[in-house]
Amino acid sequence: MRVTMILPALTEATSPLFRPVKYSLFPPLGLATLAGYLRDDDEVRILDEHVERIDTRVADDRPDLVVIQVYITSARRGYELADRYRERGVFVALGGLHVTSLPDEAAAHADAIFLGPGEDTWPRFLDDFRAGEPASRYVSTERTLKGLPPIRRDLIKRERYLVPNSIVVSRGCPHHCDFCYKDAFFTGGRSFYTQLVDDALAEIERLPGRHLYFLDDHLFGNRRFAEALFDGMAGMGRVWQAASTVDAILAPGLLEKAVAAGMRSVFVGFETINEANLTEQRKRQNVGRSYEAVTRRVHDAGAMINASFVFGMDGDGPDVFDRTVDWAVATGLETATFHIMTPYPGTALFRRMDAADRIVHRDWDLYDTRHVVHRPRGMSAEQLEAGYWRAYRNFYTWPAIWRGAAGKPGGDRLRHLAYAGGWKKFEPVWDALIRSGQVLRALPLLEAALNRFHRR
Ligand code: B12
Ligand code: SF4
């Protein structure tokens, strides 16, 4: 059987003028996971439009099966590709987060759609498809990562990614924040589960080189699993990055084990510095926690923080941008990502906004967390968008980077400057590397910035 698997990209990622490095960070792990279920004699390829051109006009591209993973921002392009293949009589399967949120919308462009994670439904479909009796809709209910076939990393064009060693050892998260995709995606079964520790360690052993990036929503979410994983990784000589929550960082012991096992930077969802917003968004794990204590703990342990903030919640006024950036710089956060609050279909936030008639349009292309798609309460949509861009600019000026780094001891200060500056101040260099298909060459620099100045 001939199978083509596609990760379509949003327009920005395919621009001939400038491609932000974030689109060349991670390979399509979800598709490589699904490819693991195919047989040895199946012919399969993975196309990632973020790093390569997909030309569907080539008339002889007629595989037996096309699989497309659909995110909200790539839905339009995903459907367009699906339609082209179907016009040619090719069977098209659509799955992923957006398909799960809006199955009827996706079904109009597919022969079969998949709701939720694919580990149970996909092998079932493959049997049905080979038997010539595929159903049109598969809904995931059995959630386990036990006995997964190895991920087909051989199908990934490693040299096109800065971080080819991305890895996921769990699915979902134990929390239930209103704005998050998670509850919608995992409806109908468990919404947080992990691999067996030994399987996760074996997957890590298989990855070449030194650097790893855990894409798990919350790597610290199951304490017993995380402790065993970090213990197993100690001594492997890995340097890695991951995501955690405020409360898990404050819990004694776990952070230290992570750093001892090689964690050098952690993504933390602070989301907002307005306490009222946290309650409204059911971000309970952040309520009443001292963000200063979180940053101090991470820095004292020897790691860096990549903080995530969301603007435009109901408690936010026009002052929120400068207050957030001032706080982030004063606390010495190394990197930050800012977002405009975006109600994804399927989330509690979307239902709440829709019921109050506060969703202004359903142009999914613009649901990219950089455009205002709802009616904000404490400011105008224009103020919100302008403030969002200002926050990015102000946080990543050299004086701000310097101020953030200045209060740190020598090695940590250098690391802060190299890491924050490297991401945001050398964009033309990233662009050139991406264009030449050689972005992986910069990985030693990333490893050095993460680890070289680390002295603890
Ligand atoms: C890595 C990542 C990225 C990477 C690359 C994405 C990639 N290569 O896959 C980068 C940095 C480019 C990125 C960018 C963005 N991202 Co992003 N990203 C992620 C992240 C952290 C991990 C994805 C991952 O690898 N998961 C692990 C694999 C194993 O799971 P999976 O990919 O979901 O695949 C499984 C299932 O979905 C399913 N499946 C998927 N497709 C199909 C198809 C079929 C046929 C079947 C059977 C099953 C199936 O089976 C797979 C195995 O279980 C997720 C968060 C998350 N936890 O998923 C956010 C996430 C996907 N990103 C998100 C967003 C919003 C963005 C941005 C818009 C952010 C921005 N402001 O720029 C951009 C634009 C993305 C785009 N191109 O359209 C949202 C998506 C919301 C939505 N409703 O679609 C998420 C969920 C983050 C969040 N919490 O809100 N992202
Ligand atoms: S902690 Fe993060 S991943 Fe978990 S539900 Fe909240 S936003 Fe989603």
TrEMBL record:
One of its GO terms (molecular function) is catalytic activity. Pfam families: B12-binding, Radical_SAM. Coiled coil: none annotated. Its cofactor is [4Fe-4S] cluster. One of its GO terms (cellular component) is cytosol. Residues 13-136 form the B12-binding domain. Keywords: Iron, Iron-sulfur, Metal-binding, Methyltransferase, S-adenosyl-L-methionine, Transferase. It comes from the Bacteria. Residues 159-377 form the Radical SAM core domain. InterPro entries: BchE-like, Cobalamin-bd, Elp3/MiaA/NifB-like_rSAM, Methyltransferase_Class_B, rSAM, rSAM_horseshoe, rSAM_sf. This is Radical SAM superfamily enzyme YgiQ (UPF0313 family).
